Structure formats: structure tokens, C-alpha cells
Amino acid sequence: MESSDRPFQKDGLVPAIVQNWSTGRVLMLGYVNQESLEKTRATGRVTFYSRSRRRIWEKGETSGNYLQVVEIREDCDQDSLLILARPMGPTCHTGAVSCFDDPPGAPTADRGLPPFETWAELLETIRVRKEADPSVSYTASLLKKPEGSVLKKIQEESTEVLIAALSESRERQASEWADLLFHIGVALERFGLSWDEVMSILEARRGIGGLREKQGRTEKKGG
Fold first, then answer.
1. Which of 109, 119, 155, 179 is least surrounded by CB atoms within 10 angstroms?
2. 65-94 tens-digit pLDDT
3. Mean pLDDT over all residues of the chain?
4. What is the mean pLDDT of residues 34-54?
5. Is the pTM of this model over 0.70?
6. Comparing 11 with 45, which gets the higher pLDDT?
């Protein structure tokens, strides 16, 4: 449906949830009107309508922390939007990654992170540790070793997963899988690959039968 056909609310606005394209993390909620939505589509950067200031505003216009649009989706009633975007920095005005994070200084809630945030946080930690002191940080020491050493760790951790799967408890199996995933994250960083690149390959294979997809890869290698 074209944006001009969307049933905006009586005040001319629809709510728009912004979600991180890579991690799935909800970043913020804002409101758009016809003009701001058209500007969002034209510029590729999320633009809202401020109800308090009563004007159009582009997220990041003062901070530089823009939200680069990847995709815009409508809900089933076509009266709200989900905007998938790549954040150019912290989204919240407090400096937090998400407006739905606990405010700075607030006591940590007695809960764990959801799985998708845990993985995203791990990859970010690995990226940051690349500049850390290798004598202090295990991750930094791996990243500064020759490529072959990083690949050897993948081989070792894979073997431990196989052993655990055949003879150890469910808890031990999960622990070994966690170790393997951590070292996969390190290897991706070491070789300059992003998780998005890997996921894009899987996305491209979606809907293709496994045997047919494998045959296609074999033919490409042979060609």
C-alpha cells in the first residue's frame, strides 16, 4: 500500500517502532506523519514528527546518531509501522543504545538478556577487545595471533562439542557449544567478516531445497 493510502490517526500520526536491523533490538518509538514518512523514504534516514515541538525532526540531526533505514513494514491493520534500521550510534538521548534500556545509574534488574542481545553484545565485546592488552585479555590475545592459531581453536572447540554430544550431560553440551560460538565470533572478527554477511548467505538460501542449494554451490566451485 502506498504511504498516501495509510489510515493515519485523527491527529495525522501513526506510531513507528524502530528496530536494529542486525540485532533485532528495539531502539525507540516515535510518531510519523505523511510528510515525515515521505522524507524518511526520500533520505533513507528515519524522520519523525515531534508532538511536543510540533515539527518534523530527523533522528540524529543534532547528535549525528542517525538511523539508516533498511526496510519499512506495516502491521496487519496498516495503522502502525516497524522500521528496521542501522543505528549510527546510541539511539537514546541519554547515551544508551536503546530508549528501552535501564536509565544510567538505575539498579540492574534481576534478569538476563534475551538471546539475541547476548549474541550482539558478545560480538561487540570481541570487536572492542581487539584493541585491548593481549597480556590481560584472552580475546585480544587470540585476535593478535596468526590466523592459523584462530582456526586451530575452532577445530579444538568443535572436537569438544562432538565429545560432549556423545558422552556428557546436557549442561556440558550447552557449555561446549557456547565455547564454540565464542570462538566463531573471534574468528569472524579476525578475518574481517561480519555476522550480517553470514546471515545474508543463509537468507539467500531461504526457500531453496538443501540438496539443490548444495548442488549449486558444487557447480560454482567446479566452474
1. 109
2. 999 999 999 999 888 999 999 999 999 998
3. 88
4. 95
5. yes
6. 45
- Cell of residue 218, nine digits: 558444487
| Cβ within 8 Å of residue 66, ≥6 positions away | 45, 46, 58, 59, 60, 87, 88, 89
Confidence band, pLDDT 50/70/90 cuts, at residue 29: very high
Please write down the HEC assignment for all residues of the chain. CCHHHCCCCCCCCEEEEEEECCCCCEEEEEEECHHHHHHHHHHCECEEEECCCCEEEECCCCCCCCEEEEEEEECCCCCCEEEEEEECCCCCCCCCCCCCCCCCCCCCCCCCCCHHHHHHHHHHHHHHHCCCCCCCCHHHHHHCCCHHHHHHHHHHHHHHHHHHHHHCCHHHHHHHHHHHHHHHHHHHHHCCCCHHHHHHHHHHHCCCCHHHHHHHHHHHHHC
Residue 66's nearest CA partner among 82, 83, 53 is 83
**Cell triple for 1:** 500500500
Pairing mode, if any, of strands 14-20 and 81-87? parallel
